[in-house]
Amino acid sequence: MVGKSNTPSARRLSRAAMVVVAIFFATVLVFFAGRLIWHGEERSEDPASQQAPDQNQRVE
């Protein structure tokens, strides 16, 4: 196999690219889903954070 190059076929390259893209999107999805779940738990633990500050209240 002296004359054969070591480059993968187009099908194999496209499959590898799809795997890389799928791993990337899975990572992003897990990150944002985890962040939303964590943020929801934080808000349920601190009910005061769910209310907007009173705009008529004076700060001295």
Report on this model:
With 60 residues, this protein is an all-alpha fold. Helix content is 60%, strand content 0%. The chain has one helix at 10-45. It is rod-shaped.
Which properties best describe this structure?
1 helix
Question: What's the quick description here?
Answer:
The protein is mainly alpha-helical and 60 residues long. The chain contains 1 helix and no strands. The radius of gyration is 25 Å and the shape is rod-shaped.
Break the fold down into its secondary structure elements and pairings:
Elements lengths: L9 H36 L15
Number of helices: 1
What overall geometry do the principal axes of the alpha carbons give?
rod-shaped
What share of residues are in beta strands?
under 5%
Gap from first CA to last CA: 84 Å
